[in-house]
Amino acid sequence: MTDAEPARPPLGEALRRRLAAGAEPDGFLPFDRFMEIALYDPEVGYYARPRPPFGGAGDFYTAPRVSPLFAAALAEPVRSEAARLGPDGSVHLVDWGPGDGTLIAGILSALADGGAGPGIFEVDLVERAAPLARAAVARAEPPARRLGATVVRAETLSALGPIRGIVIANELFDAQPVRRARRTADGWEELGARLDGERLVAAAEPLRRPVGGLPLPSAAELGSVFEWSPAIDGLLREAGDHLVAGRLVVLDYGLEEAELLAGHPLGTLQTIRAHREGEDPFLRPGETDLSTFVNLTRLRQAASRAGLRLRADRPQREALGDWGFPALLEAARRRCGSAEEEVRLHLAAKNLLFGFERFRVLEFEAGDPAAATSPAAPSPPVGPAPPRAP
Ligand SMILES: C[S@@+](CC[C@H](N)C(=O)[O-])C[C@H]1O[C@@H](n2cnc3c(N)ncnc32)[C@H](O)[C@@H]1O
After folding, report:
1. Ligand 1: distance of its center to the CA of 99 in Å?
2. How many domains does the structure of the chain reveal?
3. Residues 20-48: tens digit of each pLDDT
4. Pocket residue to mutate for ligand 1, from 59, 70, 104, 128, most atoms within 8 A of Cβ
5. What CATH number is attached to the domain comprising 142?
6. What is the average per-residue pLDDT within 109-138?
7. What is the distance in A from the centroid of ligand 1 to the CA of 269?
8. Model confidence, pTM
9. Domain for residue 378, yes or no?
């Protein structure tokens, strides 16, 4: 340890036990297994803690917390897809990774405020972290009742069985465990960690496990770090298997593989704790959020392998515009009771439109066209923050 490094707090017995159990027989803990435990272990994981990760009292903001206009805009593609699929009221609305339910509650409220029922009979909250799932159910139930829809909680998408409907995934994929590898003169070495007494320290091993999916990029330069996520491939396979008609709407931040290789030679792993970025991921596992940029090139390819068809792919700012954001903003402005409220509204709108600059919206359609009700599937109506906003 150098003088510049902060003192490493001991890990705590439960966490140390879980990390040791995830390690290889020689003690090496590959990064994806570390990330899985650090974020999602039901006992010691970051998302399992009672303290909420989102908002001022948490660690970071996601778009639904910046302004309710985000959820109100997303209600538009939900409304149009529900009308297309199930005017008879047979549509699932799924929030995949809903966190504390702020987004889904906002979408449901906007749908209910808009009058005429959009055919949704069931709202499914697919959330693996138990405390967040409870919060999401509590937030979603009142507006769901107004629509006459039931709220169901599930831990996986597969548990819902066949889905006809709309699946929304806002910042789900950036939070998936990634493998990390560094290019060496002989090939690649896998990055991860090792337990050193009561502490966890960075480590590297020759790449031993199969890469899975696509090969690692041959264009990577010596010493550069590449991240890829078998977990994302698995989630897309699940979506391809279970979405029989309708859409998967992915909203997330990411870059193309070539951009990642050229612009992020050390990878994109980001840590945030108490709205501060950049802490060593191994310093306080379970207390720090971990995320990476989504590799959009691999995401599209994995979706295509899973039988999902890409229908739209655009920057989030553009998608919000297409979903009627300017009209929603104007309506909200008219409801403002004071000049201060109006300024706040405009600042939030500016943040949504220009702060989430690396965010894209990718809409995929279920692969089996025969299962859809309408042969002419219309597109949805055209009507500075870092990726995770600290
Ligand atoms: C970054 S948060 C985003 C929360 C919310 N969508 C929002 O925009 O505020 C990611 C959420 O996805 C959940 N999550 C991660 N992997 C999941 C999985 N495989 N299945 C269900 N939920 C998952 C996490 O527990 C967390 O609540």
Report:
1. 5
2. 1
3. 999 999 999 999 999 999 999 999 999 99
4. 128
5. 3.40.50.12710
6. 92
7. 17
8. 0.92
9. no
